[in-house]
């Protein structure tokens, strides 16, 4: 790599701009309802080549958004959620690929969701927003990809709920996808995952400030959303990580106070996670997106996992992490085995990490080579 390219790789994609597309034509939903007009927020990195053959769609997890890389201004304190993976010389090399990321339908970062205004009433949808699915999210993304003039995607890539969307693309639109990167994900939401999501939703809906979803002119249900985030965040970590970071350390003293007040460092950490999540996320979006995740069941839709994987046309790379107990490696192994039985080209790697489910976002070095090499086989 030349010195100039090394410098650009260090800088990443730099300053990026949030973009919007709106469609007046309603989107038909799996529930039988329709939603329109419809807006998706998205960002792009790199350039589409003349053949339109180098486009990669990144798909975010529950708390993510369209801002996958770079900064919106020089003063931004944080870069995009997958910044270390996107840019010149990185796994998603923007010197080679045109990378797209959109905020999902139902989100709260510019795409149409519960906080958007219902054109019939002029008021925010709130709980009148229709229930959506992973399939609905992907059908909205198809509109975006069409509008960008892209007929075929070189790859779709995502972790956790992003992996759900990538699997939906690979099975519902197999002729449009050359490769799928599935990280820390599953072909269905397990009963345990549904249970955790249900507790989070209940904490929001039992908050008196939720007001049946109509809180936009009032104080939002901060306590309920913070608790939901705290519950969810624990599932993203591993026991090893919590032990290593916090152990049984007290936050401010060396001796217990023998009170009901918070004393342990891990309690303070979870409080911080809840408060910071309140500052950037909408409680109703949390309800709708987690419900969409709960409905996710690809084997049930097609009769079996093998039948679903038989629909895949392109190559697949699966990466799991040995400390992930939310979407354990057995889930990725099952997908890989089904693809193998259907004679579909697949690579699978289980990586060792103490980070738990969050490893796909934090353990970048271990993934760079695997993803970069896989994309090179598609180009």
Question: In brief, what are we looking at here?
Answer:
With 379 residues, the chain is an alpha/beta fold.
| Cα-atom radius of gyration | 21 Å
User: Residue-averaged pLDDT, rounded?
Assistant: 96
- Structure annotation, total helices: 13
β content, as a range? 5-15%
Tell me roughly what share of residues is in helical segments. Answer: 25-40%
Overall body shape: globular
Describe the 3D structure.
With 379 residues, the protein is an alpha/beta fold. It contains 13 helices and 10 strands. It has helices spanning 3-11, 134-147, 161-172, 191-205, 222-236, 239-245, 265-278, 283-295, 298-302, 305-309, 329-341, 359-362, 364-378; strands at 19-23, 27-28, 34-35, 38-45, 55-59, 98-102, 155-159, 179-183, 315-321, 346-351. The strands form 2 sheets. Strands 1-4-6-5-7-8-9-10 form an 8-stranded mixed β-sheet, sandwiched between helices. Strands 2-3 form a two-stranded antiparallel sheet. A hairpin with a 5-residue loop joins β2 (27-28) and β3. α4 (191-205) packs antiparallel against α5, α4 (191-205) runs antiparallel to α8 and α5 (222-236) crosses α7 (265-278). The two termini are 19 Å apart. Residues 3-7 have low confidence and may be disordered.
Q: What descriptive keywords fit this protein?
A:
Rna Polymerase Sigma Factor, Chain: A; 13 helices; Rossmann fold; 379 residues; single chain; two-stranded antiparallel sheet; disordered N terminus; alpha/beta; eight-stranded mixed sheet; 2 domains; 13% strand
């Amino acid at each position: 790599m030349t010195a100039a390219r090394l410098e650009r790789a260090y800088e990443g994609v730099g300053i990026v701009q949030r973009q919007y597309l709106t469609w007046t034509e309603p989107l038909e939903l799996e529930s039988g309802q329709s939603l329109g007009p419809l807006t998706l927020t998205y960002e792009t990195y790199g350039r589409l080549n003349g053949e339109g053959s180098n486009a990669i769609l990144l798909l975010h997890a529950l708390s993510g958004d369209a801002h996958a890389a770079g900064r919106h201004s020089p003063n931004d304190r944080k870069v995009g959620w997958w910044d270390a993976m996107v840019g010149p010389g990185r796994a998603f090399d923007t010197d080679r690929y045109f990378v797209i990321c959109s905020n999902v339908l139902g989100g709260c970062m510019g795409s149409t969701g519960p906080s958007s205004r219902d054109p019939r009433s002029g008021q925010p949808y709130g709980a009148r927003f229709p229930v959506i699915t992973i399939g609905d999210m992907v059908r909205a993304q198809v509109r975006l990809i069409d509008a960008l003039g892209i007929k075929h995607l070189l790859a779709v890539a995502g972790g956790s709920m992003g992996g759900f969307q990538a699997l939906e693309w690979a099975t519902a639109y197999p002729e449009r996808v050359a490769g799928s990167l599935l990280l820390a994900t599953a072909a269905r939401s397990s009963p345990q995952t549904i249970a955790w999501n249900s507790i989070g939703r209940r904490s929001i809906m039992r908050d008196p400030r939720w007001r049946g979803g109509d809180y936009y002119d009032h104080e939002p249900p901060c306590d309920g959303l913070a608790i939901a985030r705290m519950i969810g965040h624990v599932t993203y970590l591993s026991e090893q990580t919590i032990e290593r970071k916090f152990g049984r350390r007290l936050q401010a003293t060396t001796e217990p106070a023998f009170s009901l007040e918070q004393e342990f460092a891990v309690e303070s950490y979870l409080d911080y996670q809840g408060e910071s999540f309140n500052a950037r996320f909408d409680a109703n979006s949390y309800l709708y997106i987690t419900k969409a995740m709960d409905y996710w069941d690809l084997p049930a839709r097609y009769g079996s996992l093998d039948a679903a994987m038989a629909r895949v046309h392109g190559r697949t790379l699966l990466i799991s992490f040995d400390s992930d107990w939310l979407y354990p490696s057995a889930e990725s192994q099952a997908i890989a085995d089904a693809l193998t039985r259907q004679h579909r080209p697949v690579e699978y790697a289980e990586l060792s990490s103490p980070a738990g489910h969050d490893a796909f976002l934090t353990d970048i070095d271990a993934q760079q080579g695997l993803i970069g090499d896989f994309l090179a086989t598609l180009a």
